[in-house]
Give the backbone structure.
Amino acid sequence: MTSDTIMIAYDGSQNAERAIGYAARFLRAKRTYVVTAWESGSHQAARLSSLAGGLQPAMSSEYDVAVDDELKVEAAQVNSRGVHQAHDAGMTAEGRLVEVSTTVWSALVDVADELDVDLLVTGTRGASGFKALLHSSTAEAVLKHCHRPVFIVPAACAGTSAAAPDFHPSAQHQA
């Protein structure tokens, strides 16, 4: 499949690495964006607070800024690894960070619209059972809400050796 622009959602997980491998094997694009969504400390605290029944520790704004700076630096490092993995897989790619203001899936859909990509690529977490009930599927929400084609690489496909790409990120790009 040839597209002008693809976007790969990348969070540093093995499933995201697998998505890069599949995209490199099966897709060709003039432009590839590797996008990492990151959440501010206050956004994470609010989300965790809702899971903890509304109990949220008070933090000073000075602390919040320092935490946010560190979270953004960490996200940039993760994104850089994804860009390097895409390059190692033969893709011409550039990295992007997107700050989550509501949900990860909505941030990914919004940046896909902003970049006007032809295809959004994402992996799945592979959660099942009770764990899947606690955590909504980002890939499923992207698929439901994105008005562009979505290429989803499920976690379960790792065992299908006939279709799995021979992709291993180079050790030099690991943090």
About this structure: The first strand starts at residue 2 and ends at 9.
